[in-house]
What we know:
Helix content is 25%, strand content 24%.
Amino acid sequence: MITMKKSPERDFIILNLTDPQMRNEEWEEGHEHRRIFTDTVTELVDRVHPDLITLSGDVADAGQYAAYEALADFMDRFAIPWAPIWGNHDNQYGPEAVERVVEGYENHPYFLYERGDAALGNGNYVIRIEEEGKIIEGLILMDTHHTISYTNAEGKNCRALDKLWPEQLSWYERQIRALADEGCTDTTLIIHIPIHAYRLASQAVFRDDINIRQAPLEMFLSGECQREAYPESVGVQFDAVNTPMADDGVMDVITRLHSTKTIIAGHDHKNTWMIPYQGVRLAYGLKTGAGCYYDPRLNGGTVIRVTSDGVAEVSHEFVDMTPAGEQG
Ligand SMILES: [Fe+2]
């Protein structure tokens, strides 16, 4: 069990980074993507002084062991605990490849992680935040795996994104009940592949009479891309919302237990939105760095500010990487 202490004098700041997803060569000295990632994270740490850094998956690409190690060396320099989960790209060579990364990471002093029950995937664990002996916030970090294969209506073999499995939802419920027994009723779920409810929330909020993926950033910022009934939703959706196609049942469990108020997901690098949906803040973490693909205007990290009463605010910190002269 991992417990971190919050000082009563100040807020506990979590900085979430997502989808660095760099390959070995991108971490080599002098590579532009190395500079973008390290400058971005250094700027974020200087700005928000986090107590904890979480990484919501696609830390690198499976098998890119030098990239994983380079990231860990870099993260340790801040002397701030950093806690990863794994994305589909981390998981794509199976649990052995993840285990090899974890064994390397265990030599890093600021690496924070628990393997959890291997039957539930690679790394499902809880970080409890304690203030003066009371648990005020629980972070539930879960593995959304890689892909699953299925046969479509035409009898073709297809692959789709995996999801939180039913036995993981049972595990989640046990963690929520254990936290509640200790007086903690505010929790945050950190995952990589968004849950199915993200798809429904997006459909509810964004207009379907315009092609929003082609809309300029300004249209999102002015609220023109979303329906008037959802003024509290904010952010951009330049990517598809890549969730499991069928209902994964996650939202039913969450709304029944009334504990998780915020979900942070990664995976869709150019989606930044946060939507209050059925009493839960469904949020994309802001993509960190240029690995795989990114929009230089939508680069940075996400700050989760925890007070004595739990999470008070979730906000993106943008580090604009648009080349000078192109900024408008
Ligand atoms: Fe991903």
